[in-house]
Amino acid sequence: MKRKYEEVSKHQNSINQLLTLFFSGVYISSYDMLHMAKTLGYEYPSKNRELILKSLFVHCEAENKMTQLMQKLIQLLQERVTQYKTLTHNYPNICEVSALWIQKANTMIKLLQQHTKVSIYE
């Protein structure tokens, strides 16, 4: 039980940021997370976004699939950035708001990319 808690707490900052629109610039729905889990080979009955994401991090950590998880999250964020850019092109008056979302999503992408880099000291 302690190990599971440590694995979740190790990624808690990323989980919190991904779940918060203010930090990530993107709302990731339960459907998005369940679809991502399914592509990684996991089935979760829960509809709670936080539980799904925590379970994904724990299982991917245990099965050495963190790189694939980070790639899926980055791909989802990049898709949303593309959607925001399309919306901004179609509705120029939202530029001020969408630019902030795009900037936050790009920052979250960079953070996730840092997670994919393995430290030789760990």
What would you say this structure looks like, in words?
The chain has one domain (2-116). It has seven helices and no strands. The protein has helices at residues 2-10, 12-19, 21-24, 30-39, 49-62, 66-90, 95-116. Helix 4 packs parallel to helix 5 and helix 6 (66-90) packs antiparallel against helix 7.
| Quaternary assembly | single chain
* Number of distinct beta strands: 0
Low-confidence stretches: none
Percent of sequence in beta strands: under 5%
**How far from one another are the termini?**
22 Å
Q: Structural class of the secondary structure composition?
A: mainly alpha
Helical percentage: over 70%
- Count of DSSP-assigned helices: 7
Task: Detail the topology: elements first, then pairings.
Elements: H1 2-10, H2 12-19, H3 21-24, H4 30-39, H5 49-62, H6 66-90, H7 95-116
Essential attributes:
7 helices, mainly alpha, 122 residues
Short description:
The protein is mainly alpha-helical and 122 residues long. Helix content is 75%, strand content 0%.
